[in-house]
Amino acid sequence: MIHHLGKENSLVNQFISELRDAEIQQDSFRFRKNLERLGEIFAYEISKKINYVSQQVITQLGELEIQVIDKWPVLATILRAGLPFHQGFLNFFDKSESAFISAYRKHHKDGRFTIQVEYVSCSSIEGKTLIVADPMLATGSSLVLSVKELFQFGTPQDIHIATVIASTQGIDYVRQHLPHRKLHIWTAAIDEELTAQAYIVPGLGDAGDLAFGSKE
Fold first, then answer.
1. Structural domains in the chain, sorted by start
2. 186 with 162: CB under 8 angstroms?
3. pLDDT one-digit tens code per residue, 156-212
4. Distance CA 79, CA 204 (A)
5. Is the whole-model pTM more than 0.85?
6. Which of 187, 190, 181 lies closest to 155, judged by CA?
């Protein structure tokens, strides 16, 4: 199921416009903050799709039954670009455990690139809700490989892929290679084009560099 949060007018589009704006991007603090804000919005929307149980709460004046989260989701992200986005999720899912994957594109002289996964840290995800936050979904290959690495820690009950900007090709690739019966893809914007180097157009550039500085 695809959830396109940018289809309706809301603060989502305000934050997306600032993330894309080449002039505003020069302020790396604001770039990170906007990713964090979007993470909070995504967390709220995804929270409507997870399971709740009834719990008795005692106030100073009485008692009542209220619906609370049954099992807190595991929050996963791909280093390093995903960290600010992940923080937004953690602000709202404050009792959740976190998982981290180090995955990157290794470029070759002939112009091709392969995805390298060097590090995975994750608690058990068996029977739990897994939320994977990655700001950009371009080809989808790094995200699919990262999620499959997480499967060594169990089979989740459902999977929510959260991305700020996705390409149509990336969405199709994820749906084809992660045929989980309860797979949700959440995005704030969908762009049609990928360059020959597999960057999203118009996209916003390299999210990791814009958030934390260029790398050698």
1. 2-212 (3.40.50.2020)
2. yes
3. 999 999 999 999 999 999 999 987 678 999 999 999 988 877 789 999 998 999 999
4. 18
5. yes
6. 181
